Amino acid sequence: MTALMRILVLGSSGFLGEHTVQHLRAVPGAQVLIGGRSPAADVHIDLATAGVAQLADTLGALRPDTVVNCAGAVGGSSLALAGTNARGPAALCAALGEAAPTARLVHLGSAAEYGASGQGLALTESSPTCPFSVYGATKLAGTLAVTNSGLDAVVLRVFNPIGPGSPASSLPGRLAGLLRDAERGSAVQVGDLSAYRDFIDARDVAQAIVRATIATAPLPPVLNVGSGTAKPVRAVASGLAQLAGFGGRIDEDGVGSTRSPAASRAWADITTTVSALDWRPRYSFPQSLADLWAAATGKPVGTLRPAHGST
Questions:
Q1: Of 158, 163, 200, 303, whose CA is between 20 and 30 Å from 206?
Q2: Which residue range or ranges hold the NAD-dependent epimerase/dehydratase domain (predicted)?
Q3: Pairing between strand 152-158 and 160-162?
Q4: What are the distances in angstroms from CA 68 to CA 16, 72, 119, 212, 264?
Q5: CA-CA distance, 5 to 8, in Å (whole number)?
Q6: How far apart are CA 69 and CA 107, in angstroms?
Q7: Half-sphere exposure of residue 241: CA atoms within 13 angstroms, side-chain side
Q8: How many helices (H) and strands (E) are present in the chain, helices listed first?
Q9: In the chain, which stretches have pLDDT less than 50?
């Protein structure tokens, strides 16, 4: 891409949004505009409350070539989840249809829209959607609003993002904070770690977003963004504990995630995404954990304290 492309990013202050902005700003010819509720945003946009006419006026003034919607709620009341995850994308699509019908929309969905993998198979974009939680149901509603909008739009259905900046609302981010602050020999409380998940580095997600943004050909309506493998959630705990030199106990009787609690095993088939976007994950699971820990502690991994009982 050499010609100037105006890219409006919504939800830029979130975990994936921050990585996305960083990667998009490295694209030659990209002019990245920030929309959101933050005082640092170029334009104030709140998808959960804004009217379609107001959004259309804003989009008409900005004239974006692409809108990347990273805005989403992962917790809170059902009303809050519905406002951001379902109403927001629907209002955005309606406004784009009025003000910028030729702009591409890249919207972030969630693996929670699927529920569990069936019969031990990887989830493809055509797998049935049967979300177990309000979060997954509202994300699915947002996806349906996008895919039925008639716009040049693609939903990137993101699996379990991990890496530097993982928020406390996620298990990896929460566990990193607990281990960082734990006393030697103590115990940290987490939820059930028996599930298997598809962990994908947030920087790989951001690169998939870049590819979807600059692609010149029409894209499939939904693309899975994951690593293509299922790893035990306990591997997150054991990997971070090793990086932390933690010698205490990790108890699994705490409160776990409410996003897809009934899905014991879920992972992505990324065949279509690899073909459509010419994209593959680059960051390994151990590297993602190491960079998460380094960001959470401000310490390079090589200078971390030794494991309990070592010298």
A1: 303
A2: 7-226
A3: unpaired
A4: 11, 12, 34, 10, 31
A5: 10
A6: 5
A7: 21
A8: 10, 13
A9: 1, 256-262, 303-311
| Contacts with 203 (C-beta within 8 Å, 6 or more apart), sequence order | 19, 23, 163, 164, 282, 283
Per DSSP, the residues of 158-186 read E-EEESTT--TTSHHHHHHHHHHHPPTT-
Q: Does residue 202 contact residue 16 with C-beta atoms inside 8 Å? A: yes
C-alpha to C-alpha distance for 105 and 129, rounded to whole angstroms: 22
Name the token pair of 176.
Answer: 């990193």
DSSP state of 237: H
Q: What is the pLDDT of residues 16-66, one digit of tens each?
A: 999 999 999 999 999 999 998 888 889 999 999 999 999 999 999 999 999
How far is it, in rounded angstroms, from Cα 155 to Cα 1? 22
- Give rounded-to-5 percent helix, strand, coil for the chain: 40, 20, 45
| Spatial contact of 97 and 150, defined as CB atoms under 8 Å apart | yes
Contact 47, 80 (CB under 8 A): no
* Complete domains list, the chain, with CATH: 5-303 (3.40.50.720)
Distances (CA, A) of 115 to 42, 103, 121, 134, 229: 36, 31, 13, 12, 16
Bridge-based pairing of strands 30-36 and 231-232 is: unpaired
At 271, is the secondary structure helix, strand, or coil? Answer: helix
Determine contact, residues 82/227, Cβ cutoff 8 Å. no
Residue-wise pLDDT for 194-220, tens only, equals 889 999 999 999 999 999 999 999 999
